[in-house]
Design goal:
- There is one protein chain.
- The chain has about 180 residues and is mainly alpha-helical.
- Helices cover about 50% and strands about 10% of the residues.
- A two-stranded parallel ribbon has the order 1-2. The protein has a two-stranded antiparallel sheet with strand order 3-4.
- The relative contact order is 0.17.
């Protein structure tokens, strides 16, 4: 009788275990999406629509940032410094915040906080992160949640700190 080396035995055991793991993953695969998944998509899409409106208005008014950014929604990034800049900010943080999926995240947080249609919430919006402010408002509108809004005029670096494109201007452009 021929003897099988221990390396071959280990390889066979590994292949059986690996095959079992793959089969288990395939057979037990089922997506259990969040019950408000469509609402999250809707809020994200609305935020992107609003981002596009800001870009259109800034293009029309020829408002260009002096920041060198190539993120998809860079129109929401302000200047390095202006007369209304309040504090220092991070360009990388502002770039990260331009993802419209933050609106979906806010929808999730609102659901987890058991806030629902018709509820009233207080919201403080900052010109420092205009894209986050837009995402929050998109989530609230999508979920039909009433908001009492307080907004700031000033903004940190790379926020809504352009004198012709403050957060208050953006609210007006979006009719929030």
């Amino acid at each position: 009788m021929r003897k099988v080396s221990s390396n071959i035995k280990l390889l066979i055991v590994f292949l059986i275990a690996f095959t079992g793991a793959i089969l288990s993953a395939v057979l037990n695969k089922h997506e259990t999406g969040l019950p408000y998944r469509e609402e999250m998509k809707e809020a994200s899409n609305l935020a992107q629509q609003w981002f596009d409106i800001i870009k259109e208005v800034k293009d029309k008014k020829q408002i260009v940032s002096d920041a060198h950014s190539n993120v998809p929604n860079s129109a929401l990034i302000g200047d390095d410094w202006s007369e209304i800049t309040t504090t220092l900010g991070s360009l990388e943080a502002k770039e990260t915040s331009t993802n419209p999926d933050f609106a979906a995240l806010v929808v999730r947080w609102l659901h987890e906080a058991t806030i629902k249609q018709g509820d009233k919430v207080g919201v403080v919006l900052s010109g420092s992160f205009p894209s986050i402010s837009i995402s929050v408002m998109a989530a609230l509108q999508t979920m039909k949640i009433d908001a009492v809004v307080t907004s700031s005029l000033g903004a940190s670096t790379f926020g809504a700190n352009q004198e012709a494109a403050t957060w208050i201007d953006m609210e007006h452009w979006l009719e929030l």
